[in-house]
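Fig. S4 source data, part A: sequence.
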Amino acid sequence: MLARKILSATISGVLFFILLGFFIPNPFGEPITSFSNYFGSVLLSISAYLLYGTPIILFYGIICSIISDKISVLISEKVKFNNAEIILSGLLHASFGLVFAAYGLVASLLYFAVDRVIRKRKMHVTGKQIITALVLPIAVYVLCLGSLAAADFFSGGWKDLLV
């Protein structure tokens, strides 16, 4: 179960931060004047969101998800309603996500959806998949910053290296 939760957390976290980067490329509200400015802001914001948000999703998200699933299983056994476990688990995920306002709510519901898809497919999560999943946010982070560095280099930033 823990392996599935780690896989769900990394996949949903990377997806959430990429989407957040495209929808909120400038969290501080500076104006975007061109497409290249927008693209640079998207890459920079995705890397910042990954840097600060991934530990939160990995630690807080996994712990809250395990608690939500355990509580929903216990209550659904008492209630004996077919979909009680899914509904309760989703509501508990959402309520734990609300600690971080609307962003946390969206992230927790995305986490819940990814976890349910992995659970429904009965995927056996291996150690290699866990390592790959934990490297995924780092790889996306390096890719974003590398793209920014390459864009700066090819737009004339290489001249600064000569001085």
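Fig. S4 source data, part B ends here. The chain has a mean pLDDT of 89.
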